[in-house]
Amino acid sequence: MQRVERLELTTNFPIGPVYSYVVFGEKLTLIDAGLKNKQGWDELNKGLHLLGLGLTDIEQIVITHHHNDHTGMVDWILEKNPSVSIYAHKDTEMILKDESYLAWSSEFFERLFLEFGLTKELAIKWAYRKGHRDYFQLATVDEVLQDGDSVPGLPGWKVIETLGHSQDHISLYCGDTQQFICGDNIIKGVHGGIFLDAPKQGEERAKPLLQYLNNLEICRKLPAKVTYSGHGPIIDNLNGAIDGHINNIENRANRVINTLKKLDNSATGLEIIQDMYRGRYEKAVITFVFEIVSVLDMLQERNIVFAEKLNGVYQYRLINGD
């Protein structure tokens, strides 16, 4: 086995701590950089110290995806060690640093939330929150990693593009040692979530749950002895974890179908989450909107549901409603 050490870093998220990984290759590599908070910063430094390392020993950082619990301390690391090289998906820097994309993202999500059925006030509130998360101040991506690429400084490690959780998600696999670093693509026993990202202007929105199901089948073919996740325990049975995710997705799809039946076979997206997550959705509107939009994408792909826009809001109907 190639030496891979796990660092547990605090977040304020319900999913719990996030894990960064130190890979001892030709170049000392940090995979992901936690959420920007003092406790996590102290934990990162302490974890490196216990390995006999410091921030100045890190030679490169590989980012699995742009979410702020995986990129938050990149700038702080660069302040202490400006020579660190940053590797990520081709769209990561755009999502985190391109001001025109960030402005477009807010416009895109305002429209999506309105079409989902949110009020104008809520649509603007949550669109702005989505479009202006923590982003890079100092960091730039020094080299783009694409599907099939070898990882510089890590002989034997290859990049697998694993879209779904985000539109810039990558995972790393070492065939020689059958080690798999999967970010938030697969998390044992926990629903990591399917999140929407704004497309580039002029392009269609991706359907992330369909992407996710496709990449799970690609991951299923990997002979992985050990899988390192961004959250949750280390996985020793990759196919079992994948089956768990697929079962959760199918259960959620059945809940949406049953909710539509309960609502006379027709409802807006907002009406669906209001019924499914009564008393909960108000505190996490983005999470539930993204989850249900993604499930509805899948149900439309399967010809179970169709969508019709009425007065600017999508109405979702069961095709064979009883």
Please work out how many helical segments DSSP would assign. 10
Unreliable sequence segments: none
- Beta content: 15-25%
CATH architecture of the largest domain: 4-Layer Sandwich
Morphology: globular
What do these coordinates show?
The radius of gyration is 20 Å and the shape is globular. Helix 7 (208-220) packs antiparallel against helix 8 (238-262), helix 8 (238-262) packs across helix 10 and helix 9 (269-276) packs across helix 10 (285-301). The longest helix is centred in the C-terminal third of the chain and has 25 residues, at 238-262. The model has no long low-confidence stretch (mean pLDDT 94). 38% of the residues lie in helices and 19% in strands. It has 322 residues and is an alpha/beta fold. It has 3 domains: 4-97 and 134-245, 4-Layer Sandwich (Metallo-beta-lactamase, Chain A), CATH 3.60.15.10; 99-131; 250-307, no CATH class. It is built from 10 helices and 13 strands. A 6-stranded mixed β-sheet has the order 1-2-3-4-5-6, covered by helices on one side. Strands 7-8-9-10 form a 4-stranded mixed β-sheet, with no helix packed on it. It has a 3-stranded antiparallel β-sheet with strand order 11-13-12. Keywords: Hydrolase.
